[in-house]
Structures are given as structure tokens and as C-alpha cells.
Amino acid sequence: MSKNKRLRAALNDGTLFTAMAAHNPLVAKLAEQAGFGGIWGSGFELSASYAVPDANILSMSTHLEMMRAVAATVSIPLIADIDTGFGNAVNVSYIVPQYEAAGASAIVMEDKTFPKDTSLRAEGRQELVRIEEFQGKVAAAVEARTDKDFVVVARVEALIAGQGQEEAIRRGQAYVEAGADAILIHSKQKTPDEILSFIQAWSGKVPLVLVPTAYPQLTEADIAALGKVGIVIYGNHAIRAAAGAMRKVFEQIRRDGGIANVDKEIPAVADIIGLQGDKYMRELEARFLR
User: Fold this and answer.
1) Residue 46 three-state SS
2) Is the dihedral of CA 194, 200, 201, 204 positive or negative?
3) Vertex 230 angle, CA 161 and 191, to 5°
4) Which contiguous run of DSSP H or E holds residue 28?
5) What confidence tens digit (pLDDT) does each residue in 6-50 have?
6) Which of 35, 75, 157, 244 has its CA 20 to 30 A from that of 27?
7) Is the peptide bond before 97 cis (omega within 30 degrees of 0)?
8) Given 54, 81, 111, 117, which residue is catalytic?
């Protein structure tokens, strides 16, 4: 079964699909080894890895090429975070086939203006486009895909923008009418109450997608029991884990004036060489180098 079909099947049969964020192929490989169902090609994480804000500062080509590298490295589906679609419906029509050709099994596109501001930033600039405008972008994405199993997810930012549940439901339903295969509903509230209220009010015509960054107390078992959620995305844990670990190691090296104490606490060089696919390269050498 292709990656696209596997993701589509999970949405259709009600299985909760889990995706871990990744900002490069090594992270994606580690996420696959840990047992996640898919990879979230996070714009936030990629921006952070370049030390720039998650505000459409990086070009589409930078994100697209990283998605291509990630998809080529893992055997699980990749969900590409394309922010606002890098423009209007015409831009979306051009870029969706490129992400599909790069190996993504889905795109997620949000209904904010371009350039966007990251959703979880305190006092962020959260401006939404007109419903009709975003319906056009969703319809363009659906029409542009070449594989019917390629998933188009519309991300509703009404709760993030403080516009309330009624507006969020209205937008979600409109995007389903435009052809969206799933609706990502986002919240930055510190408890899941706002999200749970939305889920209860949701018609269930298509599955929902959650990103529980702000309300981590909601477990996968809790989410699956709701019966309306198809995908849970862990949106930024890879970059946060990496930044925390690197900061800790770097600070200890400076305190100690050397690496003797940290060396035993971090993966061995041989472990990293293994993750790089060294075994396969040696097999190629044995077969073809003469």
C-alpha cells in the first residue's frame, strides 16, 4: 500500500493517526523508529532550525526541498505544512503538485493572511482571510492533486484569532464544502476545553486534526475516544527537544572545559553513523566498487 493510501485508509477507518514534527531527515528517521505513524513537515520547526520566525520568511523552495529529503528517507506518510499556501488560489494550484511530486501524502493549509504569524505566539498578529477566498484555495488544492488519495487538510484559525466557536464551525463547514478531506482545528488555550467544545459541536462529515501543543494533558486515548479526530500532530517537540539537549550539553562543556563528562551522556558516534545509513553504503561498496 502506498504512503498516500495508508494515510487515506487511516482517515477512512477511524484509526487515530499520529504524526511527529520533523525539520530534517534525521529527525524523521528517529520519529519513524519511535513508532509514529507519520511525519509532520513543520514550518515552525524548519524556521526555528534556520533561527528565523515562523512568519513566511523562508521561501517555499527551502521548505519544499526539505520535504523532498524527508519523504525520501522514511517509509511513513509525510504531512506537509504549507502555511497559507504561499499566495492565493493560483499559487496553491501550482504548488500542490510540487509537494505531491516531492513525496508528501498530504498538505495542511491555514486560513490566515500572507505573511502569517505563528499561531502560538503571545499577542501574535492573527488575521484571517475571507471564507470565500479560502474556499477557493481549498478547491484549487483539491483539483490540482493528481492522486485522489492525496489528502488536503484545511486549518481553521478562528479560535487562535479569538473569533470564537461559532465562526470556527462556520469556516470549517465552508471548507468541507470546498472539498477539504479533514479540518485541523487549533487552539492556544492551556486547557482542552475550547477544543472539546468545538469537537462536540462538529458535524463529523470529515475527520478533525488536533495539535495539542498548548493542552498536553489530552492523551491519545482521550482523543481517540472522542470519535471525530483522525490525526493528532505533535507540532514542535523535535526542535524543542533538540534545542534543550544541545543547550544542556554545550553549557556543560563550557563549565567543565572539556567533553569528558558529557561524552558518556550522548549517543556514540557509531550510533549516528548507523542513522546515516552507513551499512547500506558499505553494501554498495562491496557490490560495485572494483
Assistant:
1) helix
2) positive
3) 45
4) helix 25-34
5) 999 999 998 999 999 999 999 999 999 999 999 999 999 999 999
6) 157
7) no
8) 54
Residue 149: the pLDDT is 98
Q: How far apart are the first and last CA of the chain?
A: 37
Q: Cell for 121? A: 505566539
Q: Closest Cα partner for 100 from 159, 147, 160, 38?
A: 147
pLDDT in tens, 102-119: 999 999 999 999 888 888
The dihedral region occupied by 79, where left means phi > 0, alpha psi between -120 and 50, and beta the remainder, is beta
Q: Is 149 a catalytic residue?
A: no
Query: How far is residue 272's CA from residue 206's CA, in Å, rounded to a whole number?
Result: 41
What is the phi-psi region of residue 77: left when phi exceeds 0, alpha when psi lies from -120 to 50, beta otherwise? Answer: beta
Helix, coil or strand: residue 179: coil
C-alpha to C-alpha distance for 290 and 285, rounded to whole angstroms: 8
State which H helix or E strand residue 109 sits in. Answer: strand 106-110
